[in-house]
Each structure stands twice: as C-alpha cells, then as structure tokens.
C-alpha cells in the first residue's frame, strides 16, 4: 500500500553516502581472468534477473560478491545479491551498503528507477549523483519492500507481454500456413 507523504524528506547522493562510509563502491575489472570455474555475474544477468552466466579464473583483481551487495549496470538495472560465491563482471558496479545504516533493497530500488526520472535521453547515467532520501532504516525497509513488489509486477507484466506476443505470432503462423482459418 502506497500512501501520500506531506513531508518530503531531505536528500543525499550516493557519492555523499560513500564519503560518509555508508556504502562502499567498487568497479569490476574490464576483463576478468579468462578460463577457470569462478562464476561471474554479467551485466546481462543483472538485466535479466538470472544467475551468473560467466566464468573466470581465480586470481587477483576479482571482486567477490556477498549477500546484501547491490550490483548495478550503467543503464539502470540493479539487484540485491542473495548468494555469495560469484565475481563481479565487467561493466558492473558493486555497492556494498552498511546494513546497519542502508537497506540494500532500498538502494537497489533507487538505482533501478532513478534512470526513469532523469529525462536526459541517455542510456547511461552517473549513479553517484542519484538522489536518495535520508530515512530511518525502518522506513528504508518499507521502501525496499515496495520497490521489490513493483519490480516483481514489472517482471510479471513483461512475461505476460511476451506470452501475448507469442500467441499473436503463432496465430499469424497458423493462418499463413493453413492450420488455422478465420470464422466465416
């Protein structure tokens, strides 16, 4: 349930939160060591919401993900890491929030939906400039739950749209190849 709020909160930026030690920001190496069997979370995985699909050789330079980390693409997809053991892939940024001060789902929601509010027309944005409200951890968790519910609704709508498009395509195919005919 979403309610109107008469008191707009004060805002900060991700850069200010990093400077205050509330979140650590790390960037993946441009190319992880090739070969090997260390799972790597890719930008495509983050966008699609799938498990890590890449692999790399163990070695220096790999940034290993931990539960509660937030991983984001420059194009605006972000998600909370639920299981550790994978490395951060190229073109991704890791945000490691202090869980006593910043809720990961709250942060992921602002990173994901901030690009829709920029109006710049650019597919990339400087996520360090994202405005984030200064809220208590309890209120952050409420926002985090709401963001997660909206993200789930978005995934469901995309899936339904995809199924609808497949139904229409199969109907056209059926008409064109003679397996279906219109009612007279």
From TrEMBL:
Region (Disordered) residue ranges read 27-53
Name under which the protein is recorded: SAM-dependent methyltransferase
Keyword DNA-binding in record? yes
Q: Which GO terms describe its molecular function?
A: DNA binding; methyltransferase activity
- Organism name: Actinomadura bangladeshensis
**Keywords noted in UniProt:** DNA-binding, Methyltransferase, Restriction system, Transferase
Q: Which GO terms describe its biological process?
A: DNA restriction-modification system; methylation
């Amino acid at each position: 349930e979403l309610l109107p709020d008469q008191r707009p909160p004060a805002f900060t930026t991700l850069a200010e939160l990093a400077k205050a030690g509330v979140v650590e920001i790390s960037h993946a190496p441009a190319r992880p060591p090739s070969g090997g069997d260390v799972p790597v979370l890719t930008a495509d995985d983050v966008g699609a919401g799938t498990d890590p699909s890449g692999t790399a050789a163990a070695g220096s330079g790999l940034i290993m993900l931990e539960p509660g980390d937030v991983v984001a693409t420059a194009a605006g997809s972000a998600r909370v890491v639920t299981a550790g053991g994978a490395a951060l892939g190229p073109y991704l940024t890791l945000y490691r929030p202090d869980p006593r001060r910043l809720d990961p789902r709250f942060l992921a929601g602002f990173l994901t939906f901030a690009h829709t509010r920029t109006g710049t027309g650019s597919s990339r944005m400087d996520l360090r400039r994202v405005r984030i409200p200064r809220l208590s951890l309890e209120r952050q968790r409420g926002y985090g739950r709401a963001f997660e519910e909206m993200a789930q609704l978005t995934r469901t709508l995309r899936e339904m749209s995809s199924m609808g498009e497949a139904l229409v395509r199969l109907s056209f195919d059926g008409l064109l190849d003679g397996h279906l005919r219109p009612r007279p």
